[in-house]
Amino acid sequence: MERAAFEAGLARDGFLETVERDLAPSEATPEHRHPFDARLLILSGSLVLAQGEARHSYGPGEVFDVPRDAPHAEIAGPEGASYLAGRRR
């Protein structure tokens, strides 16, 4: 998905806040939860979303959602990851 289409979809779906973030190669966030729904677009690199025992890898142009209060962790691929995240409270 292109960034402009992603941002238009965020606005349409009520994701009023956006954050762009970079993770270093192989950087991992500990398991955590957010008090908001999140929708992410991978801009470059790759990112593994870990939810319990489930793992799913995403690459450039791919989009996924993380529901409010869902426990999860993020693991950047060997080249790192850059993503744009929309937040809906």
Residues in β-strands, percent: over 45%
CATH topology: Jelly Rolls
* Radius of gyration from CA coordinates: 12 Å
Number of strands: 5
Given this structure, which CATH class is correct? Answer: Mainly Beta
Shape-level CATH architecture: Sandwich
- Span of the ends, CA to CA: 23 Å
- Tell me the CATH superfamily: Jelly Rolls
> Helix tally?
1
H/E topology pattern:
HEEEEE
Structural class: mainly beta
Provide the residue-averaged pLDDT: 97
Low-confidence stretches: none
In short:
By secondary structure, the chain is mainly beta.
Structural account:
This protein is mostly beta strands and 89 residues long. It has one domain: Jelly Rolls (Sandwich). 11% of the residues lie in helices and 53% in strands. The chain has one helix and five strands; from the N terminus they run H-E-E-E-E-E. The chain has one helix spanning 3-12, and strands spanning 17-23, 37-51, 54-58, 63-66, 73-88. Strands 1, 2, 3, 4 and 5 form a five-stranded antiparallel sheet that branches. Strand 2 (37-51) and strand 3 (54-58) form a beta hairpin. The longest helix has 10 residues, at 3-12. The protein is globular, with a radius of gyration of 12 Å. It starts with a helix and ends with a strand. The mean pLDDT is 97. It comes from Falsiroseomonas tokyonensis. This is Cupin domain-containing protein.
